[in-house]
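Re-run with default settings, no changes from the original entry. Doing this only to confirm the output is reproducible before filing.
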Amino acid sequence: MIDVLGVIGFILGVSAIIIGQLMEGGSLLSLVNGPAAFIVFGGTLGAVLLQTPLPVFLRAMRLFTWVFVPPRFHKRDMIEKILSWSNIARREGILGLENFSMKETDLFARKGLELIVDGSDPDDIRDFLELELEVKEKFDLSSAKVYESMGGYSPTIGIIGAILGLIHVMGSLSEPSTLGPGIAVAFVATIYGIGLANLILIPVSNKIKYLVEEEAQFREMIIDGFISIAEGENPRNIERKLDGYLDKTNPDSVKMTKKLKY
């Protein structure tokens, strides 16, 4: 599902600059400069490639889609699944979950179910799942920081582009009529650098970080649910525990999970 707010934010941010330029009597063509764009975009990309391992960079490129099509973590639906699995484990034993582990589409939840079916100790289940969660979260946060780094480099690269433009202008001091337009073009690089950082790169980084943290919380909820199943807790107590993970400000989340026969 497309994140409408993200699309609106992107369009509004870019439109504000374009409309502001027109309101001040400027021309859109004055903001178009190929060399400046090449310096800012190329220099920023080169700097981040220099510091980033290839797997992290490729993951960052894939995570960009999260900005407009973010993953959905349906906590209430997962709680209902966990409560259902808990009831089956109490009635039929943990081996009754074997068929569910093979059909579960969430790979993280499937691994947890397999650990329970194998009769793993609850502490071992927690250690295995938390290790997998920690590694993935760290990798995804490193990928989000790629955009954060680009947001730090691009304004500086923009200044470099402006200085290069001014150097060119200073070589034309013998023609005063060309100084004004030349200086204006030189500062386009600064606009590109600052605009790219504050309208795209830094917001993208923050959006991905938020979603990574939300996914981690979702996985932590699953871990707590599986540990409770492995320890044979009463499904009612499991529901009370997992209810704490629901967002109480979200009307869809405050609805009680559908009642099951305990």
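Residues 256-262 have pLDDT under 50 and may be disordered. Residues 122-170 form the longest helix (49 residues).
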